[in-house]
Amino acid sequence: MTIDGEPWFVLADLCAVLNIGNSTMVAGRLAEDEVRRATLSLTEGSREVTRERPVVNESGMWKVILRSDSPAAEPVQRWVTHEVLPAIRKTGSYGAAPALTGPELIATALIEAQKVIEQSKAQVAELTPRAEAWDVMVSAAGDYAVDEAAKILSRDPGIDIGRTRLFTFMAEAGWIFRQGNRNRWHAYQTALNTGRLVERMGAAFLNSRTGEMEVAAPTIRVTPKGIEDLRALLIKEDAA
């Protein structure tokens, strides 16, 4: 809106673009000559009503944007600090967009900021289900066989691993080692102490070759903490 020939902006709308929730608090940080109350025509449902709302002048608008920590404000802040102010210092004026001046230039900047925040919201919405599913999985109780752990890890789009490769990867990471006549996998004590792995003792069995009862080698199982640590290591290896 224009008051006395100068552009004024509805503070609530400005805060909405910048994703700032409390416009009243923002108004309290502005100087008296930067903010005022104005009567606006609003649509509430099917009714046209008039309400008093805080509005800010051009100086107040720039102060709100430049002091904001919102990601939506960053493109405008960067434009001012990297283009406008250096150009004024060097040439005494800024003429990068001669077709847009005054309110039109400001409105264009705010529209661009709105695009940034909408893109950010879309990215968050896309990633949230995947993150929530992973959080539920790693917070579960119990432990998993190595082939089950490999399947869980492969749910991450950036990881493709099977049972055999996971055994090899854990050995290279210093979590497990081979031992005994049967060359079975065993967990290092450090992997057990840190809660990454557990060993489950198997039932005794009759060795048909010797005719003697033998104790089965312990079975290595991966805990939720171990899966999360393996995921971090696999992602790091892939990035390298």
Automatic annotation (TrEMBL):
Coiled-coil parts of chain: none
Sequence ranges assigned to domain Bro-N in this UniProt record: 1-92
Superkingdom, natural source: Bacteria
Pfam families tied to this protein: ANT (PF03374), Bro-N (PF02498)
Protein name: Antirepressor
